[in-house]
Design a protein that fits this description.
This protein is an alpha/beta fold and 404 residues long. The chain folds into two domains: 205 residues, Enolpyruvate transferase domain (UDP-n-acetylglucosamine1-carboxyvinyl-transferase, Chain), CATH 3.65.10; 178 residues, UDP-n-acetylglucosamine1-carboxyvinyl-transferase, Chain (Alpha-beta prism), CATH 3.65.10. Helices cover 29% and strands 21% of the residues. The strands form five sheets. A four-stranded mixed β-sheet has the order 2-11-13-12. Strands 3-4-6-5 form a four-stranded mixed β-sheet. A four-stranded mixed β-sheet has the order 7-8-10-9, covered by helices on one side.
Length: 404
């Protein structure tokens, strides 16, 4: 898709969408496959920027890796290289060079790693001298990105003394920690997670045949589209009930916004219910990647909202809270932050722009979350190609809204 005006006048949606594979699962599977020296190719691996750069790095004979804007890949690969013999440099895009990584580097160095900053203290690029890690006990703020925690967990079985992580304070994104636990178990490693303490003794991964499930985060934009359309059905292929993905919570949450979910053998069927809440309130601490979807949906349906638990949005591909406030104002909605880690819309409006152009800030989720707003008003999406980070076929699928 090239940047252009979107305006979809679709009274009733009837679609079948073949969703991409989960990026979160794919990136963990790549690390676990590498650490188990697996001879098996991962089935249904995500075909997106974040996964492709990690796959390329793991298959490379180079000692310098540029992972672009892929935050998960930066964190997972930093931990993986820390325990891999050799001298490594890992860098990324300008935005990546301004995304903090000090918490992970400090933790790894305290466990025996040898990592230095090449440019700015606390940020990539990094110089890593891979070596055996002693492991032991560490404490981490539970409010940090779960990707730091998962990165440490996955290399922990190969630490000489294993690893015990004590999470302090409010622990966010617990479903992602449990996803990592479950996948490690599938590769033969036992993890315990009790009383905010993760314990992993020295063990060895075993190679297994692994198939990645479809992406619940990507599904959220189709829930959003059907919610805005108010009539119709969408079948999303490849999704499972009882998923390890925390964003599967989207199915429950959209019941408040007019969409019901029926689980079937090949995926899930979405249908319009016509039942909408008067105000939407939710703590997104465990599902931060859904916040943009719900902010845009609620505004376009004129449903006031109050979100909590959005603190991690400020250190994503962009400051997503600031970006949402700026871009939704273009559509006539005045959002605010009631307190730290909160975001809300109480019904206050302003004059919308006459030619609305949504900036995406190099953030795939900004593009996809705002696209369904075209069901309500004409707008354009700047740099639409950014969706390749997680959902390269999004615009092809989105075009089906005009075909049904």
């Amino acid at each position: 898709m090239t940047s252009g005006i979107l305006h979809i006048q679709q009274p009733k949606i009837q679609l079948e969408i073949n969703l991409p594979a989960s990026k979160s699962i794919s990136n963990r599977a790549l690390i676990l496959n590498a650490m188990s020296y697996s001879p098996y190719e991962i089935e249904n691996l995500a075909d997106c920027d974040d996964t492709n750069v990690l796959l390329k790095a793991l298959d490379s004979n180079n000692s310098t890796f540029d992972i672009g804007a892929a935050g998960t890949s930066m964190r997972f690969l930093t931990a993986f290289l820390a325990k891999t013999a050799g001298e490594w440099i890992i860098t990324g895009s300008e935005r990546m060079k301004n995304r903090p990584i000090k918490i992970l580097v400090d933790a790894l160095n305290s466990l025996g790693a040898r990592i230095e900053y090449v440019e700015k203290e606390g940020f990539p690029p990094l110089k890593i001298l891979g070596c055996a890690l002693m492991g032991g006990d560490i404490s981490l703020n539970g409010g940090v990105s779960s990707q730091y925690i998962s990165a440490l967990m996955m290399i922990a079985p190969y630490m000489i003394n294993g690893l015990t992580i004590k999470l302090e304070g409010n622990v966010i994104s617990v479903p992602y920690i449990r996803m990592t636990m479950q996948m490690m178990a599938e590769y033969g490693v036992e993890v315990t997670f009790e009383n905010n303490t993760i314990d992993i003794r020295p063990q060895t991964y075993k190679p297994v045949k692994y198939k990645v499930e479809s992406d619940w985060s990507g599904a959220s934009y189709w829930y959003e589209a059907l919610s805005m359309a108010g009539e119709g059905e969408i079948f999303l292929k490849g999704l499972k009930a009882n998923s390890t993905q925390g964003d599967s919570k989207v199915a429950d949450l959209f019941q408040q916004l007019g969409v019901n979910t029926s689980y079937q053998a090949e995926g899930v069927q979405l249908s319009s219910s016509g039942q909408y809440c008067a105000k939407f309130e939710y703590d997104f601490v465990n599902e931060p990647d859904l916040a943009q979807t719900f902010a845009v949906t609620c505004c376009m349906l004129h449903i006031p909202f109050h979100f909590k638990g959005v603190q991690s949005l400020k250190i994503k591909e962009t400051d997503r809270v600031a970006a949402l406030i700026t871009e939704l104002k273009k559509l006539g909605f005045v959002l605010f932050e009631p307190a730290e880690s909160e975001m809300a819309w109480a019904g206050e409006k302003c004059d919308p722009g006459t030619q609305i152009s949504i900036a995406t800030y190099e953030d795939h989720r900004m593009a996809m979350a705002f696209a369904p707003a075209a069901l309500k008003t004409a707008l354009s999406i700047e740099h639409p190609e950014v969706v390749s980070k997680s959902y390269p076929t999004f615009w092809d699928d989105f075009a089906k809204l005009t075909e049904t």
